[in-house]
């Protein structure tokens, strides 16, 4: 059963070494993430799964001890999902690497940690099914769900300006703040892709897990669009 979830964005810029001179600009976002992720420890989970968007090459499961790095972003920094005697060779995709960094930066969670890379194109019903399976995998499951909102809020955004983006992100913020699984389940993959909202599939997986468990309450800790990208931090418990 799902007992808690933390929802965070996954830009590598969250890692101060990657952000370099611009690191201070995202300090409020880091603080919100630290609060949401730190609350997972209080839920006393038996299993913690970090879920994040990936391309098809990065999809699938990653066991405890899996490692990733930020070398692709010019920083020689490695991270890992918990600890293991022999970390596997398959590297974490960027979203899970950011998740691993957040876990290391927050209050430790006394539970096995695993990762799951979700193909950004995965159909909603498949996402919901995967969430139900994870919720049924242990008595007390916690999720760290990585994903960004639209990347089209301004003309300087990665996806340029799209007039739909602000309303799209506003609806997302309301849904994440209230644990509104109906809204999240109805997110359209094509619209999400056109707005470059990478969180769609992970949020729908969370929806499947939440619907298979005792109802959770949501709280929104951060809702801003630095660099023209919608970033949200929320906690469900």
UniProtKB/TrEMBL annotation:
Top-level division of the source organism's lineage: Bacteria
Protein name, entry field: Class III extradiol dioxygenase subunit B-like domain-containing protein
